[in-house]
Design goal:
The protein is of the alpha+beta class and 340 residues long. It is built from 15 helices and twelve strands.
């Protein structure tokens, strides 16, 4: 391995069959880059890792209070959920309180991740609707905000809509990155996706972990979002999902969010650190061992937590016979930046 490379090795037997390159940034809540691997300044699309920041305006506008959002409701707004009944039932409940139904969701459709849900839909001859989209919670929060603010709801997903403009401003402020420099694309669910340097994304999560610099009122709003995620982690992912299992093991200390194309972000409320990870080739299978190894090298996890999450640290590869035939191995060392 080149000393500048950070890898997740894919081993079949004793042979390294392939490898995934990584970019990692670890930043404190003062904005200082402390540790890195690969290119910490690489411009990336945050994808669904941005959802905790995107949820802040739901609280700041007053929509969360007006529609009586519980922790579980707000947590679902940050989710890339599996489409289990606990997720879809809650989306339906929120929409009912808002006064609309799931036909207003503009996130499109895909097969739900939770296989039992999909089997039941087939068994009962029902269609896959936007309700089962992993982003339906986020879109529900956007719709709730638009309804509360008296804004059009049919175009809430478009870049020039006030909902998306508020989110853009919030991303810029939380990550301390000029709004005009944020690169905009379209996410898998149709809303704008934000591109910015990896270390700025890490800084955003660090500020959410320790929001004192954001002012008293915003700090309270941010804490409400992160508390919701850690109080109801099952809403963020679901059964056998890293986000849920990681936050459960963290017992309120950590909040974490996966993003498509190999992105993962973590905030540590105890140290005020923010971590942002990008798998260069976009393969999501490498991001959880990368996250685990980063946390281990930083000394942020206790031994019992490492044991609890060991299946994510060194995931086993299985064949069609369910036999273990290899594993993913983190192979990198974070570089420490000496401070003057």
């Amino acid at each position: 391995m080149n000393e500048n490379e950070a890898l997740i090795e894919v081993r079949r037997g004793n042979h390294i069959e392939s490898a995934h390159n990584l970019h990692i940034a670890v930043v404190d809540s003062a904005g200082t880059l402390l540790h890195y691997a690969g290119n910490s300044n690489k411009n990336i699309y945050a994808r669904s890792s941005m959802k905790p920041i995107q949820a802040i305006p739901i609280v700041e506008t007053g929509a969360a209070d007006y529609y009586e959002f519980s922790d579980a409701d707000l947590s679902l707004c940050t989710a890339s959920h599996s489409g289990e009944a606990m997720h879809t039932d809650r989306v339906t409940s929120i929409l009912k309180r808002v006064g609309i139904d799931d036909t207003k969701l503009q996130c499109g459709t895909h097969i739900p991740r939770w296989q039992e849900t999909y089997k039941n839909l087939i068994k009962n001859d029902k269609e896959v609707t936007p309700l089962f989209n992993n982003c339906s919670g986020k879109h529900t929060g956007m719709l709730a905000t638009a309804m509360f603010m008296g804004e059009p709801i049919n175009t809430y997903y478009e870049l020039d809509h006030p909902v998306q403009q508020r989110i853009m401003q919030t991303v810029s402020e939380i990550c301390d990155y000029p709004q005009e420099d944020i690169e905009i694309g379209i996410d898998g669910c149709g809303v704008p996706v934000h591109g910015l340097p990896l270390e700025r994304l890490a800084y955003g999560f660090a500020r959410m972990a320790n929001p004192e610099s954001l002012g008293k009122e915003r700090a309270e709003h941010v804490r409400r979002v992160t508390k919701a995620m850690t109080a109801a982690p099952e809403m963020v992912g679901g059964t056998d999902r890293f986000c849920t299992d990681f936050m459960t093991a963290g017992k309120g200390r950590f909040f974490g969010k996966a993003g498509a194309e190999g992105v993962y972000c973590i905030g540590d409320t105890q140290t005020g650190l923010g971590i942002a990870i990008k798998v260069a080739d976009g393969n999501g299978r490498a991001v959880y061992p990368a996250a685990m190894e980063t946390l281990v090298q930083l000394g942020l996890l206790e031994n019992n937590q490492i044991e609890q999450l060991k299946e994510y640290h060194h995931p086993k590869l299985k064949n069609a016979r369910n036999e273990i035939i290899g594993e993913l191995i983190p192979h990198f060392r974070l570089k420490h930046i000496a401070l003057a």
